[in-house]
Design a protein that fits this description.
4 strands, 51% helix, 10% strand, elongated
């Protein structure tokens, strides 16, 4: 008997696990047949997806919410679709795009339409992904040009930093006492001291 499976992928930039999970539940997929990867899309080394691939057999049905769950770019989506449908003989249903349901239109025309839609959507998916990265890079560049500083804000030096350093160098106080007075970690103390000395030698 054929089994029904669902695959969910969420990344740090795409936190729609609940939406995907709800969509799987609406298809009455058994809980144990829903595979979830919570990793970035930087590579396709996803453990749950690999487990799913090993589990699938000919005639099984796989649900995904959208085609970009199958890969991070045009080539990868096409490749995974080919592996699933051609090599494994699995049917795929893309919930957000009913035209991409391999159970329908098994004839030549139906296959042609599904392949055409897949190519268009996977291309659009990759283009949108690249556009997002471009807009992010442009936004960061524009913010830097305006003087926006990214990352953790630097700890300002206390007014008596030089005096604390001198006392520590003269062994009047311990390093523990020095960093305590400056309200910073030991690593930060040494880094700020190095920066101060570099400025003095310029």
């Amino acid at each position: 008997m054929e089994n029904i499976y669902g695959y969910i992928r969420v990344s740090s930039t795409d936190q729609n696990e609940e939406r995907q999970y709800f969509a799987m539940q609406s298809k009455a997929i058994p809980e144990k047949h829903i595979y979830i990867d919570k990793q970035s899309g930087k590579d396709f080394n996803r453990p749950q997806y690999k487990r799913l691939i090993k589990k699938l057999k000919q005639g099984d049905l796989l649900y995904v919410l959208s085609i970009d769950r199958l890969g991070r770019n045009y080539e990868e989506i096409q490749n995974q679709w080919r592996i699933l449908t051609k090599e494994l003989g699995v049917d795929i249903c893309v919930i957000d795009m009913p035209l991409l349901d391999t159970r329908n239109g098994k004839d030549l025309m139906g296959t042609f339409i599904a392949d055409l839609v897949l190519q268009i959507l996977s291309f659009v998916s990759q283009s949108e992904h690249e556009n997002i990265k471009t807009r992010q890079a442009q936004g960061i560049a524009a913010a830097k040009a305006k003087g926006t500083i990214f990352g953790r804000p630097a700890i300002s030096l206390p007014d008596d930093f030089r005096q604390v350093v001198q006392a520590w160098e003269k062994k009047e106080i311990s390093i523990h006492r020095a960093v305590e007075q400056c309200h910073m970690s030991e690593a930060t103390f040494y880094r700020r001291l190095r920066e101060l000395r570099n400025r003095q030698t310029e």
